[in-house]
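#struct-help
A.M.: can someone run this one for me? Single chain, 353 residues.
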Amino acid sequence: MSRARIGFDRYTIEHRGYSPEETLRFARERGFDGVQFLDASTIDESLDPGALSRFRRMADDLGLYIEVGLPTPNPGRWARDWGREPSVEEVVAVLTPQIEALAVLGCRHARIYVGDRHDRFRGELTWEEQLAGSLEVIQALTPRLIAQGIRLAIETHADLTADELLGLVARMDSAVAGITLDTGNLTMRLDDPLSAARRLAPWVVATHIKDMVLAFTPRGLCWQARPVGSGILPMPDILAAVLRAQPDLRLSIELHPRTYDLPIYYPRWLSFFPGLRPDALASVVRLAADCERRYAEGSLDRPETVEAIPWPRRDLDGLAQSLGYLRSVVPHLLDSARPLVATSATVPPTPKE
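D.P.: on it. Structure tokens below:
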């Protein structure tokens, strides 16, 4: 039986303006086991060790886990804020105090992301250059991360494909290499969600758990996040694959509004995915067709219907629905899960905690 604990990412309710402490109390009152925060500065802007220690104690007193991320290691994204491309050393200097803050908070892994859903397509730096720059920063930070016992959990953040993420992890020191699996984002980068989850599972140390739907548009596909268990993903199979590899994994629900455009009918857009697997693209299109069938029969609401409801009127119901689904499904997953299939050709060696 899985020993996974279920929490949520603060981003889901960030619009409500709760302080970090209020967010912890919200989690406890609503039956969650923990909260994931973007980075330590969202807990205390000054990264004061005393304030961070008090926050850690509050979470412990409430019986909650806390997970805390790091800002991106991608120099290309920092260049957009600074108006110039920073050196590796400058990015390292920004991230180092954040790593020290993670140690104060007692975190043993940190969720990070490389880019957003647009960065692959930007003209200033190619995606390959952004990946290379990110790896340089990560390698420069590795001694400090090892000294603090912290692993980087790189997210499937609507940026990296599964193959790209595995390639990046394979070039990192295994002592610091990890993955944050966002279940809903896999299809956004044209990955077969179940196949990708199975290949990534040995490295997963953190999660964003969400469901999703797709719909056909004149440009290709529309993507939308949904509460866990209410979309088109094979959630029991995905969760079983990951929990079989990581039985103590924390499941952090992350939900948000907005629909995203996937213009798969345009060869130029597809050309930004040089490693695109035809079978993976076919699986994504098949999921979209399944959604369209369910829209037609009335068993699934169309994205535009859901999006017409303001997010503050559906965030809490979405969290409650997701929590209820996971509480009912997760305890039984490992009993029926099939063995995880992984080969050295697709997945690096399983890391040691």
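A.M.: thanks! The mean pLDDT is 94.
D.P.: also worth noting: Residues 127-148 form the longest helix (22 residues).
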